[in-house]
Each structure stands twice: as C-alpha cells, then as structure tokens.
Write a structure and sequence with these properties.
Layout lengths: L1 H5 L5 E5 L3 H11 L5 E5 L2 H10 L4 E5 L7 H8 L10 E5 L4 H9 L4 E4 L4 H12 L3 H7 L16 H7 L4 H27 L3 H13 L1
Parallel strand pairs: 1-2, 1-3, 3-4, 4-5
Amino acid sequence: MQHRLANMSQLNILAVDDMPLNLKLLSTWLKDTPVKLMLASRGQEAIDFCQKQDFDLILMDIQMPVMDGIEATRLIRQTKLNIGTPIVALTAHAFNEERDKFLQSGFDDFIAKPIDLNHLLDIIDLWCTQKPADAAEDAHKTQEISVNHDSTIDWDLALKRANYNAQSAQYLLSEFNKLLPGIIKEINEQYTLSRSKEVHDTVHKLHGA
C-alpha cells in the first residue's frame, strides 16, 4: 500500500465534503504522496475553486447544506476549466438505482461511504491514468465492505482507514466521539417532530462519517 501511494502521479484533486472528519481522512491518506489535494466544505466553495483552477479529479459529497453535490456538479460542468473533469460522487447509498441517478446527473463514477483506501486508489487510477473510454468501460465495479459485528471498535480496520497511522486513527476516533452525542440528539429531536426527511439526511451524514 505504501509503495502504491508513493508512486502515485502528480495530480490535482479536489475533495468536497461538509464533514471535516471525511476531509481529514482523505488528507491523512494522501499527505505524503505527489497528489496536491484541495479541500472544500461547501458546494459553492468547490465551484469557486473550479473557476480558478483545473483539476484532474473531483470527489464530490452528495448531501450538503445549501447546495448539494448534484447541483454543485451541474454548475462545475459549466466552468471552462473543469467542464470535462471526472467527478466522483461520494455517497452512503450504493444501490444500482442510486448509481444510475448519479450518472444521469453528470457524475462519472461513485464511491460508497465509508471510503476504502484501496477502492479510492483504484478510482484515481481509473480516471487519471487511463483513457476516458477505457475508464468508462471499467467503472462501477461492485465494492464489498466487511463489517465486524463482534466488537464495538474494529481497531485493525481503523488503522487501515488511517493508512496505518495510529496517531491519526486515534485523532479521528476522538473527533468522531465528540460529534456523536450532538448527532444523536439531532436525530432524536427530528424523530420526535416527525421530520422524516431530516432524520434520513442526518443518518446519511452519520453513516458517511
């Protein structure tokens, strides 16, 4: 894995996500690679970046406040610098019908959350080192995510997610634990008020984290 990371191409990648933890994880993975990673926490911020700089790949979260990833992608497709840049949807939903919806909305591919580093590198290789036609033929491979039901925290998986950096894994877990009580309170309040869509969106955000 370390060899694969060290031998990545020099790429400009934009990651867009309203969850700081997810952006921190991507930064941890790509920190010591040739990749230049730009981070945006809002759709409009991503559009502003795309009007000033061309990217090799854009990783776009779907559910964000004010402007979702689908609308942000539509507007990025209208910029001169990134009209043809591969845009990959980041989503907690991995159903076939969701995939078709994303492709019809202007995305080139999608990654299901929580993101797996190996799969992310496959996606980067697919869209940044192959010809677009070849990438389109190979895209949308089914990814299998293993879940450990026997423990509260799967530390081996946590280390893997953090690229085997124990300090980063501990930091991410600590930050997640700080967020969790507020998210649970938010879900309970929304459920009590029968706000089903808001419950769905908040659970989606939790799953993505």
